[in-house]
Design a protein that fits this description.
The chain is of the alpha+beta class and 336 residues long. Helix content is 24%, strand content 28%. It is globular. It binds flavin-adenine dinucleotide (FAD).
Length: 336
């Protein structure tokens, strides 16, 4: 293991923010991780996957540990399911493709989400009507201070909308080492969300398959979302906020076209992108920072924006949405 000093993290975050880490190292197994975190008086540590859900606002005065634990293995199967374990450092989309090739169903709607397998349970990644929660079996994580490996079942993870215990009560305590998924041998297609059905029709698909759904999702996402390799971004910057039924009724009478979906618990989820767009931010640009021209919810870096500029823009968006709609947005992206 080679610890590098004062290196730019620009290649390691999809916003392309140019800040320095005091120390940076990659680890490929648990023994290396244990060795790197052995010193109790060590510097602060940051676990990094693909850097696609992080906004760096300043230089990192500590040790960045980039997770490169690899490997995908079929553990066992029963009549309905196959149990597949993947190293935290595997690329999420490559893992999805690996499953689709083998006809293991359940991950197809989550195609083309950037980042690593290890970060996927952190915020219970989701898209097109499917979340990690739906396919998760268990994970192993290393407790940095107690120096032990703990297994988390689905209920231990307390998954919620873009939430888990790892973002709340266990924040910064565990390093996820691997995740096991329970995938279906016989698919249950989920095409009702977003524009999947229209896209399948446009593609001329007659025999539905998980590969066809994955391709449809890839097409939709590629046409709607900026590719971080071309324009720096971290996907949706804010979560979709939920409001009470009463507040929704008031908003609906003032804004007839408000985009909203009912939650199972009776509250109403509003589309954060719609709220932000109504405040005039869509396509906004100031210097190298702004909101994407096709999706106001995606903050972008056109070149050399700083993390502080992006954070400041997110503050202004929060305030304007609060003033106009009385709704408080919450950031989805991790601010460092
Ligand atoms: C274009 C684009 C589209 C996106 N679309 C979606 C989407 O549809 N749905 C969705 O849910 N998300 C989406 N995202 C967000 C992002 O892809 C996910 O949150 C992804 O899971 C982040 O993975 P990562 O490896 O890049 O995590 P990072 O950004 O590296 O890390 C995110 C957080 O997790 C922590 N972390 C990372 N790995 C570990 C580990 N092994 N153990 C402990 N902590 C860890 C980090 O410290 C940090 O706090 C999108 C992002 C982009 C750029």
């Amino acid at each position: 293991m080679q610890i590098q000093e004062n290196i730019s993290l620009r290649p390691y975050n999809t916003f392309g923010i140019d800040i320095n880490a005091r120390y940076f190292v990659t680890f490929t197994n648990n023994d290396e991780l244990e060795e790197l975190t052995a010193d109790a008086s060590r510097l602060p540590t940051l676990i990094l996957g693909g850097g696609s859900n992080i906004l760096f606002t300043k230089d990192y005065d500590g040790l960045v540990l980039k997770n490169e634990i690899k490997g995908i293995a079929e553990l066992h199967e029963d009549s309905e399911y196959v149990y597949v374990k993947a190293g935290a450092g595997e690329n999420w989309h490559q893992f999805v493709l690996h499953c689709i090739q083998r006809n293991w169903a359940g991950v197809e709607n989550l195609s083309l989400i950037p980042g690593s397998v290890g970060a996927s349970p952190m915020q219970n990644i989701g898209a097109y009507g499917v979340e990690i929660d739906d396919i998760f079996w268990d994970l192993e994580a290393y407790h940095i201070n107690e120096r032990k490996i703990v297994t988390f079942t689905r209920s231990d993870c307390e998954f919620g909308y873009r939430e888990s215990v790892f973002k709340k009560k266990y924040k910064d305590q565990f390093v996820i080492l691997n995740v096991t998924f329970r995938l279906r041998k016989k698919p249950r297609f989920n095409t009702s969300y977003g524009a999947i059905e229209q896209e399948l029709e446009r593609m001329g698909v007659r025999d539905l398959s998980i590969k066809a759904i994955s391709d449809a999702v890839i097409n939709i996402r590629s046409s709607k979302l900026p590719n971080p390799e071309e324009i720096g971004n971290a996907g949706s910057f804010f979560k979709n906020p939920s409001v009470s039924n009463e507040q929704y009724t008031r908003l609906k009478s003032a804004y007839e076209n408000i985009a909203a979906y009912p939650n199972a618990n009776g509250t109403i989820k509003l589309a954060a992108g719609w709220l932000i767009e109504q405040c005039g931010w869509k396509g906004f640009r100031k210097g190298d920072t702004g909101c994407h021209a096709k999706q106001a919810l995606v903050l972008v870096n056109y070149g050399n924006a700083t993390g502080r500029e992006k954070y400041q823009l997110s503050e202004e968006i929060l305030q304007r949405v609060k003033e106009k709609f009385g709704v408080t947005l919450e950031r989805e992206v991790n601010i460092i």
